[in-house]
Amino acid sequence: MSKALFAGGCFWCMEYIFSHVKGVRRVIPGYTGGDLENPTYEEVSTGKTGHFEAILIEFEESEISYERLLEKFWRSIDPTNPYGQFHDWGPQYRSAIFYYNESQKRLAEESKRRLTLSGIFRGEIVTLILPAGEFYPAEEYHREYYKKFPHRFFPYKKASGREEFVRSKWRRYPFFRLFPERKGYWKGYTPSEYYFDEKLPEYASFGDGEGIFVEKFSGEPLFSTFDIKGVTEDFIIFDNMLEEFSFNFKESMMIESKAGKLFLGYFEKNGTGVNFKVLINSLRFISRENLTRYGYVYYEKLFRR
Fold first, then answer.
1. Which residue out of 4, 5, 10, 96 is catalytically annotated?
2. Is residue 221 within 8 Å of residue 212, measured between CB atoms?
3. 13 is catalytic
4. Which fold has domain 2-190?
5. pLDDT, tens digit, for every residue of 129-139?
């Protein structure tokens, strides 16, 4: 079982958010980051112990990746507030990612860098990235608070402003993906994570521009403009792909996106390899200029001269 340790303000709300994520086996609210051993809720609430309210997440890496948990974390907080989260203010409510190994540290730092580059948040991203220290589980009555005291929890959650902030912020950026080039990132993908508008924008014509094509809904990276072999009224024909892990190759020479399960078109063998005949309306084009904005910064290297 793998572990992740996040601080995102009120641990009742954070426990609720991550307890509903597929692949997460257990979420424990508690305290970390301070000097006092075995602190109580009352002591931490003074803001003088140095602790954060935090959640310890135990998850199955075969079902969901750390990258996916990072994205869920960023989509659940206000990373620009250095004083707390939403209507909970005080040092115990600051946001932080605590890493258990170098891999988690590298991914956390890179995720923060990409979020900064995207410009989604106007203010500085001040969420801390720190080594994981001692974690103290909170008192029993705090655990699964949303189940034990729903008459208190749900009015509190609504009044906190978290849900309204997250929805209004991310509804404007439904196509941002944190680590689209990483195979593990797509483990645990569910469309419900993203706030799609009722009507998605029509397929954007790429003209003579450079960029990449992604699956219209999930955002899985599929092809680049360098891979185009031909264009018809309904299809684009490609002779190469960006990431093999983005595809399911089905019977009758059909292809679909791996995570999104969207029918894309067909593949056919040629003398030297494979051609992909892909429906235009299954794709979304991201221009070279917008790669960073949408989280696809990894693919900028394709267009460097």
1. 10
2. yes
3. no
4. Peptide Methionine Sulfoxide Reductase; Chain A (3.30.1060)
5. 999 999 999 99
